Amino acid sequence: MKNQTLPGMSEMETDQMKALPLPLIQKPYPEGGCLVDLVSPVEFTLGRMPLIDAISGRESRREYTEEPLSLEELSFLLWATQGVRKLIRNGLVTLRTVPSGGGMHPFETYLLVNRVEGVDPGIYRYLAIEHKLYQEVAGEIQGVERIGEICNEQRFVGQGAVVFIWAVRPYRTEYRYGEDSLKDILISVGHVCQNLYLACEAIGAGTCAILAYQQEPLDDLIGVDGDEEVALYLAPVGKVVKS
């Protein structure tokens, strides 16, 4: 089906059809920056809850304890939502733990870290290829207070041990799907967040998907331009007391 138009999709010639270079899988990061090693998936000792239990227990949780996440727990959540299982097509395409149209995976995962063992507070970006964190901004920078304000005064958002913020680089999908990219991007980010819900259940944590936020302030918080890269979805994560 190479270069064929699927039923219901646009017939516009895409950049892939024009044989233009494939955009980078992952946004580059400066050399010499602060990197944090994460726990490898082959070393995970948690997340063994039966899938049926994770699905039946899944719900949005807005109250979190002061308990920090461990580095292994954060590593597990990142792997569950954007982990790379395999590089294919000469390293230009990834197979991950979530589906994405054409394997394009246009998302970057940013983290507002508040309470994670072994990780200083600040803003980080998940480097899925390397399975590491890159520190974008060091220190608390009032991010915990700001994120609640940005989310239309939903103060509980800033009370999580960490806040996942997914940004999209639209051209990564537009390269293959052109003007039909929006629906694929929106569907794909839903897959990502659902995996976060299930992974949180498996480690005794909770999350709540957030779509009510102020666009420009959220873009500014994670340092994206709002054009070539745009904040799209976020979810706080914290340990919870379950009844």
From the structure above, extract its key features.
243 residues; alpha+beta; NADH Oxidase; seven-stranded antiparallel sheet; 9 strands; 21% strand
Describe this structure in words.
This protein has 243 residues and is an alpha+beta fold. It has a single domain, classed as NADH Oxidase (3-Layer(aba) Sandwich), CATH 3.40.109. It is built from 6 helices and 9 strands; from the N terminus they run E-H-H-E-E-E-E-E-H-E-H-H-E-H-E. Helix 1 packs across helix 5, helix 3 runs antiparallel to helix 6 (215-222) and helix 4 (170-177) packs across helix 5 (181-202). The longest helix has 22 residues, at 181-202. It is globular. The N and C termini lie far apart (51 Å).
User: If you compute it from the alpha carbons, what radius of gyration comes out, rounded to the nearest whole angstrom?
Assistant: 18 Å
| Biggest beta-sheet profile | 7 strands, antiparallel
CATH class term: Alpha Beta
Number of helices, counting only DSSP H or I runs of 4 residues or more: 6
SS elements, strand count: 9
Helix content: 25-40%
Strand order of the largest sheet: 1-6-5-4-7-9-8
The CATH H-level homologous superfamily: NADH Oxidase
What's the CATH topology name? Answer: NADH Oxidase
Mean pLDDT across the residues is 92
Q: Please state the structural category.
A: alpha+beta
Unreliably modeled segments: 1-7
Order of helices and strands: EHHEEEEEHEHHEHE
Approximately how much beta-strand content do the residues carry?
15-25%
Named CATH architecture: 3-Layer(aba) Sandwich
| Distance from first to last alpha carbon | 51 Å
The tally of domains stands at 1
The shape, in one word, is globular
